[in-house]
Amino acid sequence: MGAFRFRNKQNTPCGHNRLPQRWSYKYWGERGERNILETDCSRSHITFTMVYACPVLLLLLLLWARPSLLAASPRTYEDTDRLTGERVQCERCPPGSFLRAGCSSERRSECARCPEGSYTEMWNHISKCLRCGACGRNQVVKQACTAESDCQCECKQGYYYEPDYDSCVRHRECPVGQGALTKGTPENNTVCQICSGSTFSNTSSAHQSCMEHKKCSDSGLKMVLRGSSWHDSVCADCTQLKDAADYLRETIPDFVVYHNMNVKRLRRVVHRLFPEDLEKSRRTSGLSSSELHAEINAWAASATPAQIRQLPDLLKNRAGDWLKNMLDHIETRLPEECGLGNGTEGN
Ligand SMILES: *[C@@H]1O[C@H](CO)[C@@H](O)[C@H](O)[C@H]1NC(C)=O
Ligand SMILES: *[C@@H]1O[C@H](CO)[C@@H](O)[C@H](O)[C@H]1NC(C)=O
Ligand SMILES: *[C@@H]1O[C@H](CO)[C@@H](O)[C@H](O)[C@H]1NC(C)=O
């Protein structure tokens, strides 16, 4: 009788996360002739599911394997006694074992435990256990391989299984202005929601949910700029009034991220922020977006109110107008909230 060899060519996944893989099927015929069939089959177990998943394979299995080598039932198979040439009913081997020696009219089938690193999941009469799979790219072992079952893999932290690509894909990051409604799992992508009502998110993140705007009144402060989906409320302490530009300063890092300017634009902004610093200008040409953001944030932290007031003109375009509006807003609210007359001459 012939024997099948099933080989998982790539060291790709086992278990339920079915990543594309090539299988090769070798069939040793009764006279030692060898047939090789290669097919793409997204199942790593030799089970009936797999056979159904691969109609071509099913057909070939039916044609080639007269007695089915792997079957759920019955627990015996028919073989020919080598010495007498009689037909004999042999016992199959249970899951976790393989057939070390076939039966004869005098001897029962001899089964042996699958060696480490191999398994059989069904009653069988294969001469070698199936090799355990290995987890694929961006996967981790969920359940180790045992003699009776192949290992199970799942996507590693930060990744989920995407059936469309049949692979583990990084969780979506909710952009600024959106928060995670449900965090990503090994099975599901992050679900984002727009921060509405009194909530905001000032980070691009796969797990940060929308946060409540702070309530200035809770700490005895006055709100001088209402929070939006991408920045927190800005509060003022009326007993220690500052220039309106000092309140705008707080929102500049969030503003820069929210406006999502491209690298070229960010470089131009940084150049304009440090017009006389030639050394810095030269250096910015090699900086990434996040490094440029850091430059702007550092500038904002130490700029004088007068310098901050120039930022809208320096940004130009819509972003500049937007920032100017925010500043105007603070400028009108500040005296109102703090019960002053006109102007910002607080102290
Ligand atoms: C995760 O995805 C599965 C389908 O892939 C779906 O049935 C299930 O409801 C999802 N769970 C959540 C929490 O969205
Ligand atoms: C986001 O807002 C919080 C609360 O106002 C603030 O503490 C934090 O620094 C902000 N993060 C960024 C990246 O701007
Ligand atoms: C506030 O300033 C405006 C013009 O800037 C002026 O018309 C108004 O009288 C001022 N009000 C007070 C209370 O000083």
Automatic annotation (TrEMBL):
Alphabetical list of Gene3D superfamilies matching this protein: Tumor Necrosis Factor Receptor, subunit A, domain 2
Places the protein is found: Secreted
A biological process from GO: apoptotic process
Intrachain S-S bonds: 114-129, 132-145, 135-153
Domain TNFR-Cys: 113-153
Keyword annotations from UniProtKB, A to Z: Apoptosis, Disulfide bond, Glycoprotein, Membrane, Repeat, Secreted, Signal, Transmembrane, Transmembrane helix
Protein name in UniProt: (Atlantic silverside) hypothetical protein
Organism, as annotated: Menidia menidia (Atlantic silverside)
